[in-house]
Amino acid sequence: MPYAPTPTDTPFQRLGGEPAVRAIVGRFYEAMTELEPALARLHPCDAEGRVAPESREKFALYFIGWLGGPQDYVAQHGHPRLRMRHAHVPVDAPMVDAWMRCMRRALEQSGVDPEVREFLDRALLPVAAFMQNRR
Known about the structure:
By secondary structure, the chain is mainly α. The protein is built from eight helices and no strands. The chain has a single domain, classed as Globin-like.
């Protein structure tokens, strides 16, 4: 039977809590810099093309909460309103695919349990696709 989160068995817990999720986020942005520089440039970046720490931190807080961990993002920034907050960013189907490639690589490099990886792949793809605002 495929993994399905419950209130007492969240992806956040299965991944290993905040340190593990933050490590995944770090690998995600490393993959973005290495594999998808056009995607990285949609964010504020440093001189080497790495996504700025502030953006990384916001995503880490969001991802921790999305995975079932502490809701610090909402406490600090309010409702995510993903489409509204990203409306200024041109997101087309290739960018959605690029985002997913980076996340899949981060999960793979992090040694995430295959059941949890499968669940996350199924759950993240619709979120990424929802962000598309260009054809």
